Amino acid sequence: xxxxxxxxxxxxxxxxxxxxxGSATSPGSSGGSGDGLVVWDxxxxxxxxxxxxxxAKADFAKSHPGVDVEFVAQPFDQYYTLLGAAIQAGRGxxxxxxxxxxxxxxxxxxxxxxxxxxxxxxQRLAGWDAFTxxxxxxxxxxxxxxHPLYYNKALYEQxxxxxxxxxxxxxxxxxxxxxxxxKTGAKCFGVGNKEGIGIQFxxxxxxxxxxxxxxxxxxxxxxxxxxxxxxxxxxxxxxxxDAGGLNNDGVNSTAMFNDAFAVFQSGRAAHVIGLMSDTGHxxxxxxxxxxxxxxxxxxxxxxxxxxxSLPYDGGIGYAVAKWTEDPKxxxxxxxxxxxxxxxxxxxxxAGAITSDTTTDVSAGGPAxxxxxxxxxxxxxxxxxxxxxxxxxxxxxxxxxxxxxxxxVDEAVAQLAASDxxx
Length: 422
What we know:
By secondary structure, this protein is of the alpha/beta class.
């Protein structure tokens, strides 16, 4: 079986429009030497994904011997443009990788509902909601993605704080940050908002400590009151944290990926709202910090009526294109890509928090233990519930809040109008 590390964007687009990359077999074929499936993603070129793909292909070969599977790693910054061209042409890869949420839901007309094929995986895998629309499932989750609040235990110790008992309330948290900065010179938060991404992490990472559970659930359900005191408080905190000197300098000129994470892992900030999987996560941080010093804490309570929870959703997942000649065979490949053996390798090598609830994560250290413990009571991330248009606007307004060129009231009014427009 072949794996191609990277095609140029031009070649991939030409293929999508000219040859389609689709299956070569007729429907119902059991697979022969001329059979083939093509997968588009942005992961298969990564060395850390090699064992994962090998395990998935081996699993698939058990039931489909002789079927050639080709992985085509596309550049992520052009991925959805290339995929859109393939969809418009009505031909392209048989299987494709998606981020959970809007990127998939906006394209379900080009996908095969997988419900009849993945029944046996329902209980084992988590994160399905991010890959569903109107009650139908269009991809199987590979990873879970969320926004834990990481902290550097070594800096806590240097400041004379108990690293095993981080602050539970916002006021105590700010006081501890003052002690850390005073003793070590490290700032409280590592933040990057050059692309307007930092506010997404802040909204979801801190939101459950501000909104009541009912307000949080209403937000996820689409009943968002942008003028409520809780929502305004989140955006006020965003501005106040920076104005109070708790962030690294130059947040609006610092890239979230990966400059803000570098601030944390270099010890120049005591906390960062990071990711569970892929990058900016526990495994990355442990390459620079002692793994035992990478802590995960609950968001400090701002509103006594709030209940902090881990914000997470299905991260990435594989879907089947409507034009594939044999949907069941393509769905079997998706199932192999989410098999226990494959996902176990992905966790071990890439540090992914996979969708498989049976994966042994005991070797991941205390940070992984804390993250996985939070999954049971976790809730969807607040920013993931928003449209891409509103998220883009929120990014621009968050920069203006930090620069002082807009107010919280003005910002939430604009966001409410954008959200209502859909």
